[in-house]
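CO-FOLDING WORKSHEET

Operator: S.A.
Ligand of interest: zinc ion
Run index: 300
Mode: holo prediction, single chain
Checklist:
[x] sequence pasted
[x] SMILES validated
[ ] output reviewed
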Amino acid sequence: MSSIRCVDLLKRARAGSYAVGYFEAWSLESLLAIVRAAEIARSPVMTGFCGEYLANPTRRFKEEIGLYGAIARKVASNASVPVATLLNESIDMNVAYRGVKAGFDMVMFVDEEMPAEKLIEPTRKLVEFAHACDVAVEGEVGALGMVEHLGGKRHSGRATDPEMAAKFVQCTGVDALAVSVGNVHFLEGAKARLDFELLEDLHRKVSVPLVLHGGTGIDKAEFEPSIARGVAKVNVGSCLKRTVLECENGYFSMNEVGKLNPNDVLGRGGALDVMMRSQEALIEEVLGFIRAFGGENKAA
Ligand SMILES: [Zn+2]
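OUTPUT RECEIVED:
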């Protein structure tokens, strides 16, 4: 069980008509909560970190991709269900290469400004390198719409062109393709309108499993018809962090932390431990998605 080749994980999902959730972690606690949710649901799962965030140049301390890769791999291999790891959305090609070397099961490079035609050659090279290390690559054609923050400015995206998508996959050899079919990054408090006709067309023309990013902003009822049209992986990020923030906010407004034993609040893992509470809330949030993806009890 435990860690699994990404390609096999996605193949199984397609054959079994469910989707694998990629739940993005940002810390050891979030990583563990995601895997624990998958174990509770007996579901395969993907988790990992965002390449763009880890390599964010405004960080005071440089994060080592290798360390995050090692932690993710270890957590995956200890799990009692199949877990594959992803270094998601690196906007610097060097970071994607470092992700391969760090042992993530899949890496992704994105440049939504660059036309797909121009992206082909650098992506093909990344795929060649990654495949030689038995690492999969996710590509993207088109650009997702994006919301700056809850209630904030919404930027429109660029829908995935099916012919271009087919050509991109064929020329690069990517193992999965993220598509823009109305899904929106960071969308909270509203739901995106998915273009199922476009998804259907993409499914007909593109040979690899399709990926929907922006899972937070997709109505849970829309996952099933998406899966029927070739979606084998859904990325979920924003709502996981929102869940933890709301849990912590609630905790600090309900408890007079100044009067509590700090070891009860952080580190002991009991009923008063704020990190444990966040983990519990995160587990419930992830479970809701796993069920909507049809992934429950699919950990063969
Ligand atoms: Zn994304």
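REVIEW:
The first strand starts at residue 20 and ends at 24.
The CA atoms of residues 263 and 273 lie 8 Å apart.
[x] output reviewed
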